[in-house]
Automatic annotation (TrEMBL):
Broad class of where this protein is predominantly found: membrane
Protein localization: Cell membrane
Protein name: Pilus assembly protein TadB
A Pfam family it matches: T2SSF
């Protein structure tokens, strides 16, 4: 009984820690304020690509903003569009640099840059690349100032990112509350065990108890999934 109780406590603590850990915005802000090296930011970007789609999209949004800022700076320095885009792409740490190789080749060899940007844009988080492709096509076909168009795209992307971060901050409270409520059943088991009611014997040693345990875990997991889904849709 004591070993099962210890396992329950450890599992509960791990679940609470995983669900109440810092979100993407907090982690990125703390890393930037500490002035971390470029290699640390690159490693963080790679880790984001292996996690949830929302975090991967956030990494692509941030990289797109950096690309627009770098491209605007290169164009303002007097470089040609192709050379400016090549240098800007090399200066940004993308979540998946392999997908940008056709864009680099098109910018260097005078190929179809808008098509390459559109093809490289991921389904989630690729709005910045698609908008940049539209600006590039307008700048080349119409002859409009590409630097001014890129500046507008960067401003729009920064405003959208600030809005997403504001929504994420407002949703932090409800998310934390949902995670705490999800941990209450485990706390109830601990309290019952402390009172000598032996709940694990019923839950693990009888068929009705096992059915109650499986049903409770399933409902708890569904509640966490549904809360996270609603929060993700609100951020999107």
């Amino acid at each position: 009984m004591s070993s099962a109780l210890i396992v329950t406590v450890v599992c509960t603590a791990c679940a609470v820690w995983m669900w109440t850990g810092p979100d993407v915005a907090t982690t990125r802000l703390s890393g930037l304020t500490r002035g971390g090296a470029r290699s640390r930011r690159r490693m963080f970007g790679r880790l984001l690509t292996r996690t949830s789609p929302a975090r991967r999209a956030d990494a692509w949004h941030s990289a797109s903003i950096e690309l627009c800022q770098a491209l605007s700076a290169e164009l303002s320095a007097g470089r040609t569009p192709g050379e400016a885009l090549t240098r800007a792409l090399a200066s940004v740490d993308f979540p998946d640099p392999q997908t940008l190789r056709p864009v680099v080749a098109a910018a260097r060899d005078g190929g179809d840059v808008p098509a390459a940007l559109t093809a490289a844009a991921p389904p989630q988080g690729g709005d910045g690349l698609r908008r940049l492709a539209a600006c590039w096509e307008v700048g080349v076909t119409v002859g409009a100032g590409l630097s001014a168009l890129v500046d507008r795209v960067a401003s729009t992307l920064r405003a959208a990112q600030a809005h997403r971060q504001d929504v994420a901050a407002q949703l932090a409270g409800p998310r934390t509350t949902a995670r705490m409520l999800a941990a209450l059943p485990a706390l109830g088991l601990l309290m019952a065990a402390a009172l000598g009611m032996r709940p694990l014997t019923f839950l693990l040693g009888t068929l009705p108890g096992l059915m109650c345990l499986v049903t409770g875990i399933a409902l708890d997991a569904c509640g966490l999934w549904w809360t996270n889904r609603m929060a993700t849709q609100a951020q999107g």
